[in-house]
Write a structure and sequence with these properties.
heterodimer; A: 505 residues; alpha/beta; Rossmann fold; 6-stranded mixed beta sheet; 33% helix; disordered C terminus; B: 333 residues; mainly alpha; two-stranded antiparallel ribbon; 4 strands; 74% helix; disordered N terminus; binds adenosine-5'-triphosphate; binds magnesium ion; nucleotide-binding (chain A); ATP binding (chain A); sugar transport (chain A); AAA+_ATPase (chain A)
Chain lengths: 505, 333
Amino acid sequence: MCEYLLSLKGICKRFPGVNALTDVSLDVKNGEIHALCGENGAGKSTFIKILTGVYQSNDGEMLCEGKVVRFNNTKESFSLGITAIYQELSILPNLTVTENIFLGRELRIPGFGLLDYRRMNQLAKTALLELGIDIDVTKTASEYTMGYQQMIEIARALIANVKLIIMDEPTSSLSGREVDVLLKNIHMLKEKGIAVIYISHRLEEVLAIADRITVIRDGCKIGTMERSEADEEKIIRLMVGRTLEEKFPRHQTQKGEIALRVRNLNQRGRLKDISFDLHKGEVIGFAGLVGAGRTELARAIFGADKIDGGIIEIFGKVVKINSPKDAIHHGMAFLTEDRKGQGLILMHDIIVNSTLTGLKKFCKFGYFIDQKMVVAEVDEMMRELQIHPAIPKMTTRLLSGGNQQKVVIAKWLCSKAKIFIFDEPTRGIDVGAKVEVYNLINRLVNEGAAVIVISSELPEVMGISDRILVMNSGKITGEFSCLEVTPEEILKAATGGISHECKHA
Amino acid sequence: MNASTPEVQSHGGTQKTQLRQMIKKMGSLIGLIGLSLVLTFASPYFLTIDNIMNVARQSAINSLIAIGMLLAILTAGIDLSVGSILALSTVMMGIVVVKMGMSPVVGVLVCLGIGILLGWLNGMMLTKMSLPHPFISTLGTMNVARGLALIVTAASPISNFPASIQFLGAAFIGPIPVSFILVLVVYAVFHVFLNYTTVGRYIYAVGGNPEATRLSGINIDKVLIIVYTISGLMAALGGLVLVGRVNSAYPLAGLGYEFDAIAACIIGGASFMGGEGTVWGTLIGSMIMAVLRNGLNLLSVSAEMQTVAIGIVIILAVYIDVLRHKAAARVKT
Ligand SMILES: Nc1ncnc2c1ncn2[C@@H]1O[C@H](COP(=O)(O)OP(=O)(O)OP(=O)(O)O)[C@@H](O)[C@H]1O
Ligand SMILES: [Mg+2]
């Protein structure tokens, strides 16, 4: 057997107008955990797609266990034991867990050709137990959370006896506990001799599990290092080409009048008696576990879902918000957590997407859009947010994840809102760009906006908010000033422990 | 211009990619020109002023209906009721003008008004009654309107319309049929509407991702109601032209017109998934269908065979589009 499971040499990939990868080489050893780091748009996902046969390289070669291979589609790579788990899961929600695990490789009853559900259920169950989860495999996949669905995908790979599992930002929509389970299972895979390529913008995860780390910048490989030689600062330096001064910059504003007052907001089965005030010049962070009701609260305030009672006041006036349209009319903006499903029109370009909320302001004579004004404003926003590549007519589907997020942000900047709700604003964004987003939030606050940030990353909530509200099962279970709170206190409130009341000075 | 947003956008890059962009945008136009060239060689009569004007006239009704249909398709919907709306609105005009002797102006208003009303109902059923897909609401309207058209006329045609009503469908200005001029004017208006007004842009947005559009503060119910209302109006306008051309309103008019309209949109590059398609593409799609029918007539191909040919062209046109998308996706510069 040869030392490398897989080695790629001099891989190049060009898209019209973009060199996504230039001369990238990478070796993967049997049973190693190899992390891939790089900024948004560095080419990580493209590299993975070449590896699995979604794209074909323009140049370079690929050796699998010493033999030259070339994959035209994912089926060919799968047959050699390579599979990928993407951030957007490829689980079919309407099929059962078992059917998902055996999709395309169903077992049949010998001699009959009918599906052998008994054996499949058994094997599926065993594979999932190996991953430490015990669920009913005959239920449909839609009944389980994202974390479980990811495990179902891994079980699918286990059943097929793969040698390499690639994970592209697998943790970006998982809760803290689910992340722990995933990382534990990755170790388990390694012990079974399965190699893992792991992509994540969360460097602490990378440092926790990787054996080796490769950094890519602007489509070029910067280097591969052993875990022992790596630390967070070094990875960041290699990724962005400079050191970051401040991970969580803070805004310099005094809080002003009350911008948003929520009183006794109720939504059957989801939200119970939510009350809080948000001031001008203030950032409130909403912490809590996934499913605590934070997104539901944001959607309710924004009029995306109906409420069953409660009062919302904006700048002192009671308002009635029945639809997102009303909310925007009253100066609100809402960045959804699911940028592909709810944020972007993927088939349309950056111009269309980034001006959707503010289209009316480009109108002449009330109805006709001034195309020149639109283009000028979009150019300006793209420069400000450093959207890359800076091609206004680029279809947003082709942008890297982080740049897609920036387009969504641009959309709301365009609406000239005064109250911003950011739901997981830095999901899938690289370390450098995160700081950009924080700076941007700070700028909004300095200009007199009021901001709510919902985030599942505790350091982020603690790093950028003035006040932290913790939610649990649809209720606010704790309020803390950022200056005097510990992660333990927040976690306690989030998991139903006793809340520590503390008013902001 | 920001008419549609295809797979790979112009990357402002090399001339080669720009050329490819052009070809992509012009795909159906090249098809139309190619088809015309073939027919020019096949039939000496094809490339005469008379015949070209004939094609222009024949394509008019389908073009008018297709542009309304395009709006529905852009929102990832469909309007199956256009043929029946055409029938009901024209026979009602016949009853008002011919049978009741009211003024042609009232007749035209009744005709267009019924188109607007039925289209609006389609939109209301889709949005306010939350019917799951426009296929259902418009299928219902298709049957109701056809049935009503048969009932109010006792299944017999109405003829002898005044000349003023026939003007749109029958008159010429010089060699050019008025109906074709109407089409050009209507298409220009739609081009501006879809590309340079907010509602027009919202129509593309709704088709691309309704949830993202709603969360961007756009009232998508309103957009959809506007879309189906306009589609109904265009069906009635097509009916007005038809009445002029044949000097008769009959309850079985417009049978199957919905499929010709859909075909024109699809041949012209509109996507059934919504969000993609252009005004001029639709015009070319409609012209391709008319030229094809005309050519096959000139070559004395039987009506039955013509139907077969149209079917094949629809599938070929969309297949070529699929290939073009694939080529663009794996393009190597
Ligand atoms: N099909 C495509 N056509 C054109 N350009 C593309 C295509 N796919 C990717 N790109 C471009 O290639 C570059 C690399 O993108 P890729 O998605 O690999 O980045 P990434 O490292 O995964 O970034 P992120 O961390 O944001 O996910 C980007 O500039 C992107 O816009
Ligand atoms: Mg990526």
